[in-house]
Predict the structure.
Amino acid sequence: MNTYSGSCHCGAVRFSFRAPEITCAMQCDCSICIRKTAYLTPAKVAQGDMEITAAGDALKTYRFGTMAAQHHFCGTCGIHTFVEPRLSPGTFRVNLGCIDGLNTLHLPSEIFDGKSL
Ligand SMILES: [Zn+2]
């Protein structure tokens, strides 16, 4: 397990988490992910491995449809930082673009069929 840290663009939302080494990205084609074009952690991060180190009032949550998935984002800069997926409440998929020192464009990616959910 490795420890990663990350933030939104303005830095109001900061977090760290433990995960296996990130060697690929997951892209989801559901109605919101395809609009965000986010590259996500391929493995879900357990709640106990996720620590939100700064957020205050900046961390906002968007829900739609079944209202089960929680799409978290920074209310100041608008950047989507992580999601608690509908199928796995209490776990997180992190926006890899928010992770310090990781270039998502240099990672292979796989597509998750979120559109069919
Ligand atoms: Zn921000």
Remarks:
- The two ends are 30 Å apart (CA to CA).
- The pocket of zinc ion is lined by residues 8-10, 12-13, 58, 74, 76-77, 79 (CB under 6 Å).
